[in-house]
Amino acid sequence: MNELQKLYPVKEQAKAITHIDSETYEKLYQQSIDQPEQFWAEQAEKFIDWVKPWDEVTSVDYKKAEISWFKGAQLNVSYNCIDRHLATKANETAIIFEGDEPTDDTRISYQELHDNVCRMANLLKDRGVKKGDNVCIYMPMIPEVGYAMLACARIGAVHSVVFGGFSTESIKARVLDADCQVVITADASVRGGRHIPLKANVDAAVADCKDVHTVVMVERTGASVNWNNERDVNYNQVIDTYPAICQPEIMDAEDPLFILYTSGSTGKPKGVLHTCGGYILYAAMTHKYVFDYQEGEVYWCTADAGWITGHSYIFYGPLANGATTLVFEGVPTYPDAGRFWQVCEKHKVNIFYTAPTAIRALMSLGDELVEKYDRSSIRLLGTVGEPINPEAWHWYYEIVGQSRCSVVDTWWQTETGGILITSLPGAVDMKPGAAGKPFFGVKPAILSKEGELLEGKTRGRLVMTGSWPGQMRTVYGDHQRFYDTYFSQYPGNYFTGDGAKRDEDDFYWITGRIDDVLNVSGHRLGTAEIESALVLHPAIAEAAVVGYPHEIKGQGIYCYITLMCSSHESDELIPELQEFVAKELGRFAKPDYIQYAPGLPKTRSGKIMRRILRKIAENELENLGDTSTLADPSVVEHLIENRIIHE
Ligand code: PRX
């Protein structure tokens, strides 16, 4: 362990505030493992208002990938996030909206949130949306994205939020897969002063989706848009005509709440399905304990609603706890790289949660833009999405947090619904770069590649040996894929896809994905998706994509392509292909490097040896491993000679 990774004991200041100290953590954790039913029943009563209690706390069969929590119970998630707070918090701020421009902000009280969500729910009902219908949401980071999600939850519709940076093709694939008949969008989004025509993207995406009968459009920028009178509804023009009351639909705990598509190592993105009861309990409870949320505090998670972090820790978790949650439309570098800290000063943010990629990007621009702003309100800093390198951790802790705030690393996944491994503030010491220890009820284990359980200080593949309420329940429309992806490799365990090590103090350190999933600026991408996008281009015969370490983004995208005809190689083709992928998938998927590969290293059975391609992209040539099993070992020489050396 080097100097940068040394242990930081629990902050005295955190100890004073938090209700969970080290002893309580150990005791509660043990109880959650020894008596899970009792533990979860108590938490469920404490955090959630149920219409009807459960018949059975949990039933889990990993052999069939069948998981249920609180079966027989009834509730409504939107009621839990809004209505139950009205008696005491009607006039308190639920959402602080900070727009792209620093002059643009608003506060939305719990009463206003209620009224806006009810109106949106009534609008959806009016357009025929019923319990169990799937609704696609493709929106900027404005309060209406929250209204739309909660309106769906209120009437029992299942939302599928598609990140606003995704392309037309990605929206179309998701609308079709979930058979959404309604899409909620905005005229355009504006981030860092840049406008993205969301409505036009939706128009193009749904042109081939015959079941889409309604597109609801929120006016954000006033951009001119094409209009289809039959199909399109202007939210701003009609919303005041709908009543601000809408009875919440009574839902079973195991009824679906949302679908969220995420990338895997093979095939098209999977629709991760979460259900009402277990998810909202887990989101609320982790939000409360991991961020140590206290009444009246301002909490800011900088994620986008299009990712799971936005679902669980901008909207569902904080609102279930009656918190004040900040919704930020912009980017960390607009109008300048001091924006995060300027917003913290302006709104007196107490808890700040962001991704290592943002921390690294801001760190590279110096301390001045941080120190210019008053950060004395901040008491807790969180990170999510990828391992944080110790240098970035130290900058976050020392410069942003003035060496007085707890830093909580939070490891989790779209599939897990909420945080599973973390350094619980006030309870677990901080080790820069370590994700920490399991949250209550969570049972991580490390296995060898062959599936042998490894004890003590070790390194291997991270699995969960039991379930927790926030766990996904299925892949939408493909339960077999759910089983195959997560439960088939190591029977009896949930396989995370991540590698991890456990140290002498039982801390978990995530070492990254062990499959073909990339993590680019905290965005999850399958190499197969990028390859499929590349081969759609008429010039390309074959493509292989790998990740390489990138100083800011965590991982960069390196592509090898074989052309239909090698004489088509040209300097112009590369940028054209980069744009082509960006258009197919979204800008965040734009390849960093594309190398021509007249041949790819394949085994005699035709399998591409990615291990070799990864080493070449990383410029690590000493350790290429055995190349003698390749059908044509000479292709490796060519690839090495023509590799692109990056900084
Ligand atoms: O590899 C892990 C990494 O992100 C993956 C999950 O990505 P996604 O489903 O998009 O969810 C991201 C936000 C929860 C994981 O398999 N990851 C996430 N958080 C961390 C992390 N790696 C290391 N440390 C983390 N704190």
Automatic annotation (TrEMBL):
<feature type="binding site">
    <location>
        <position position="540"/>
    </location>
    <ligand>
        <name>Mg(2+)</name>
    </ligand>
</feature>
<feature type="binding site">
    <location>
        <position position="521"/>
    </location>
    <ligand>
        <name>CoA</name>
    </ligand>
</feature>
<dbReference type="InterPro" id="IPR042099">
    <property type="entry name" value="ANL_N_sf"/>
</dbReference>
<feature type="domain" description="AMP-dependent synthetase/ligase">
    <location>
        <begin position="83"/>
        <end position="467"/>
    </location>
</feature>
<comment type="function">
    <text>Catalyzes the conversion of acetate into acetyl-CoA (AcCoA), an essential intermediate at the junction of anabolic and catabolic pathways. AcsA undergoes a two-step reaction. In the first half reaction, AcsA combines acetate with ATP to form acetyl-adenylate (AcAMP) intermediate. In the second half reaction, it can then transfer the acetyl group from AcAMP to the sulfhydryl group of CoA, forming the product AcCoA.</text>
</comment>
<dbReference type="GO" id="GO:0016208">
    <property type="term" value="F:AMP binding"/>
</dbReference>
<feature type="binding site">
    <location>
        <position position="498"/>
    </location>
    <ligand>
        <name>ATP</name>
    </ligand>
</feature>
<feature type="binding site">
    <location>
        <begin position="191"/>
        <end position="194"/>
    </location>
    <ligand>
        <name>CoA</name>
    </ligand>
</feature>
<keyword id="KW-0479">Metal-binding</keyword>
<feature type="domain" description="Acetyl-coenzyme A synthetase N-terminal">
    <location>
        <begin position="25"/>
        <end position="81"/>
    </location>
</feature>
<protein>
    <recommendedName>
        <fullName>Acetyl-coenzyme A synthetase</fullName>
        <ecNumber>6.2.1.1</ecNumber>
    </recommendedName>
</protein>
<keyword id="KW-0067">ATP-binding</keyword>
<dbReference type="InterPro" id="IPR032387">
    <property type="entry name" value="ACAS_N"/>
</dbReference>
<feature type="binding site">
    <location>
        <position position="309"/>
    </location>
    <ligand>
        <name>CoA</name>
    </ligand>
</feature>
<keyword id="KW-0007">Acetylation</keyword>
<dbReference type="InterPro" id="IPR045851">
    <property type="entry name" value="AMP-bd_C_sf"/>
</dbReference>
<dbReference type="Pfam" id="PF16177">
    <property type="entry name" value="ACAS_N"/>
</dbReference>
<dbReference type="GO" id="GO:0003987">
    <property type="term" value="F:acetate-CoA ligase activity"/>
</dbReference>
<dbReference type="InterPro" id="IPR000873">
    <property type="entry name" value="AMP-dep_synth/lig_dom"/>
</dbReference>
<feature type="binding site">
    <location>
        <position position="513"/>
    </location>
    <ligand>
        <name>ATP</name>
    </ligand>
</feature>
<dbReference type="GO" id="GO:0046872">
    <property type="term" value="F:metal ion binding"/>
</dbReference>
<dbReference type="InterPro" id="IPR020845">
    <property type="entry name" value="AMP-binding_CS"/>
</dbReference>
<feature type="binding site">
    <location>
        <position position="535"/>
    </location>
    <ligand>
        <name>Mg(2+)</name>
    </ligand>
</feature>
<feature type="binding site">
    <location>
        <position position="524"/>
    </location>
    <ligand>
        <name>ATP</name>
    </ligand>
</feature>
<feature type="binding site">
    <location>
        <begin position="409"/>
        <end position="414"/>
    </location>
    <ligand>
        <name>ATP</name>
    </ligand>
</feature>
<dbReference type="InterPro" id="IPR025110">
    <property type="entry name" value="AMP-bd_C"/>
</dbReference>
<feature type="domain" description="AMP-binding enzyme C-terminal">
    <location>
        <begin position="529"/>
        <end position="607"/>
    </location>
</feature>
<dbReference type="Pfam" id="PF00501">
    <property type="entry name" value="AMP-binding"/>
</dbReference>
<dbReference type="GO" id="GO:0019427">
    <property type="term" value="P:acetyl-CoA biosynthetic process from acetate"/>
</dbReference>
<dbReference type="Pfam" id="PF13193">
    <property type="entry name" value="AMP-binding_C"/>
</dbReference>
<feature type="binding site">
    <location>
        <position position="537"/>
    </location>
    <ligand>
        <name>Mg(2+)</name>
    </ligand>
</feature>
<feature type="binding site">
    <location>
        <begin position="385"/>
        <end position="387"/>
    </location>
    <ligand>
        <name>ATP</name>
    </ligand>
</feature>
<dbReference type="GO" id="GO:0005524">
    <property type="term" value="F:ATP binding"/>
</dbReference>
<dbReference type="InterPro" id="IPR011904">
    <property type="entry name" value="Ac_CoA_lig"/>
</dbReference>
<keyword id="KW-0460">Magnesium</keyword>
<comment type="similarity">
    <text>Belongs to the ATP-dependent AMP-binding enzyme family.</text>
</comment>
<dbReference type="GO" id="GO:0005829">
    <property type="term" value="C:cytosol"/>
</dbReference>
<keyword id="KW-0436">Ligase</keyword>
<feature type="modified residue" description="N6-acetyllysine">
    <location>
        <position position="607"/>
    </location>
</feature>
<keyword id="KW-0547">Nucleotide-binding</keyword>
